[in-house]
């Protein structure tokens, strides 16, 4: 039977939690600034305050003095030591945070003390790097993307053209090393580019007309690298003399794309929505017309053929759209979430047609709406027949509606948050389902009210549940639930 770090247990034999397992609200805190959570650590006050959530009661790890506005952190990634690798510094073996500040500084902070372990200056006034930290390969290659370059209004009126849209800085992590910096230029990729992203070695370029194009990012780095540089290296580059990653020079733009790279794939999709996954590889798009919003096509990446039953449409009438994505458990399945229904779909070969795939339903999870009757005709106590002028929406707040669906990889559980709002009071519960079959294993009612008009995040980490919510006037709260095993009834659980 698995044992959590705090000594509590859950029963994985037979695929269910113990009946005696409860989750108790042990701690709540409030903040005037956003609250973040990373692997057992709660960060507040713009990462100046760190609280561990692993102990019986959350406790302070460190509290730093308030930073200046110029040092404000805009984004962060957690770095964890790779197993079985020799690293140059003892600090590399402990968890750390890579953070991005408003003044173009990339900092590596100790996750245990907040101490600055490394500093890299990204660029001067030519571009702004903030808010955009992401993984190309998780825990291996990191991308820092600049904000979109826009000329001042006066320069645009004078007819001055801006050709560089974005800069991408690429780093290897642990040890932190500079791979290169490149620009996304209108002259190479076209004038209608709206955004770019990098994931799993693929450069994804998005266009205003809904077009999405994919390029081999690794091949681009190798083909167009002019000269490699190391952090701290002295350089003389295009008339500039300085040190790589030091103020005021920053990083050299040493990857110059001089010709359009070979195109791997392109597709047109509404709002640039495009996903790749499954086995064999498939992609999901919405046809690029507004009338098709909420309709998803699942097609083969190899030849663009639509899978059998590959058009998925829940036909729900709701304010919030349904959403679809490839299951993060790497099973190749697909999760389709609507207001009151979660479908887990799988790709399978069509019988007697090994080269054709079809979409089949693996299992479904249905919201509990037994007490919600959506009748258009009501008979009053006096016998008068009253007809409703409007039908009830599928995500009407007074009906139980799915708001969050997540996957917990260590325990192989699918978690869902369903909310029902009566008046100003919204009640939510977190449910755990068997990831293989969808059966309900445990339901945890959340004590705090849930306001559907504001943003919420829910994390499940081993024997811990965190609920981070935004309240009116940008007030934030964090509620921590701990697993307890007690055969006696506990009203606070």
Automatic annotation (TrEMBL):
Keywords: Membrane, Transmembrane, Transmembrane helix. One of its GO terms (cellular component) is cytosol. GO terms for biological process: acrosome assembly; cell morphogenesis; protein ubiquitination. The chain crosses the membrane at residues 164-184, 196-215. The keyword Plastid does not apply. The keyword Transmembrane applies. InterPro entries: DCAF17. Coiled coil: none annotated. This is DDB1 and CUL4 associated factor 17.
């Amino acid at each position: 039977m698995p044992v959590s770090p705090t000594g509590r247990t859950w029963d994985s034999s037979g695929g269910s939690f113990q009946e005696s397992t409860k989750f108790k609200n042990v701690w709540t805190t409030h903040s005037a600034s956003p609250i973040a959570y990373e692997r057992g650590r709660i960060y507040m006050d713009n990462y100046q305050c760190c609280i561990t959530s692993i102990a019986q009661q959350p406790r302070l790890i460190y509290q730093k003095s308030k930073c200046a506005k110029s040092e404000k952190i805009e984004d962060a990634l957690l770095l964890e030591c790779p197993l079985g690798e020799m690293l140059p510094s003892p600090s590399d073996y402990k968890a750390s945070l890579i953070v991005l500040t408003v003044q173009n500084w990339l900092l590596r902070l100790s996750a245990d003390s907040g101490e600055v372990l490394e500093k890299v200056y990204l660029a001067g006034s030519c571009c702004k790097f903030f808010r955009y930290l992401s993984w190309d390969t998780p825990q291996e290659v990191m991308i820092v993307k600049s904000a979109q370059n826009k000329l001042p209004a006066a320069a645009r009126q004078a007819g001055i053209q801006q050709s560089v849209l974005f800069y991408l800085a690429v780093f290897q992590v642990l040890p932190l090393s500079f791979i290169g910096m490149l620009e996304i230029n209108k002259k190479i990729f076209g004038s209608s580019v709206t955004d770019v992203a990098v994931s799993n070695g693929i450069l994804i370029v998005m266009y205003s007309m809904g077009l999405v194009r994919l390029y081999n990012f690794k091949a681009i780095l190798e083909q167009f690298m002019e000269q490699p540089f190391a952090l701290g290296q002295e350089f003389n580059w295009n008339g500039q003399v300085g040190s790589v990653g030091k103020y005021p020079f920053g990083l050299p733009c040493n990857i110059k794309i001089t010709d359009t790279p070979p195109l791997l794939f392109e597709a047109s999709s509404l709002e640039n929505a495009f996903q790749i996954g499954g086995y064999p590889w498939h992609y999901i798009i919405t046809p690029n017309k507004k009338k098709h919003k909420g309709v998803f096509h699942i097609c083969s990446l190899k030849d663009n053929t639509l899978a059998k039953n590959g058009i998925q449409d829940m036909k729900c009438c709701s304010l919030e759209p349904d959403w679809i994505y490839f299951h993060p458990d790497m099973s190749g399945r697909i999760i389709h979430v609507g207001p009151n229904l979660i479908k887990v779909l799988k790709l399978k070969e069509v019988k007697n047609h090994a080269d054709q795939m079809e979409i089949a339903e693996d299992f479904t999870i249905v919201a509990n709406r037994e007490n919600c009757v959506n009748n258009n005709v009501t008979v009053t106590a006096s016998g008068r027949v009253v007809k409703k002028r409007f039908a009830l929406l599928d995500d009407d707040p007074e009906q139980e509606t799915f708001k969050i669906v997540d996957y917990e990889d260590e325990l192989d559980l699918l978690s869902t948050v369903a909310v029902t709002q009566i008046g100003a009071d919204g009640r939510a519960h977190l449910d755990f389902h068997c990831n293989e079959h969808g059966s309900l294993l445990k339901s945890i009612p959340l004590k705090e009210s849930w306001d559907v008009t504001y943003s919420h995040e829910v994390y499940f980490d081993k024997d811990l549940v965190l609920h981070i919510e935004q309240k009116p006037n940008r007030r934030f709260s964090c509620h921590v639930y701990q697993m307890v095993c007690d055969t006696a009834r506990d009203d606070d659980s």
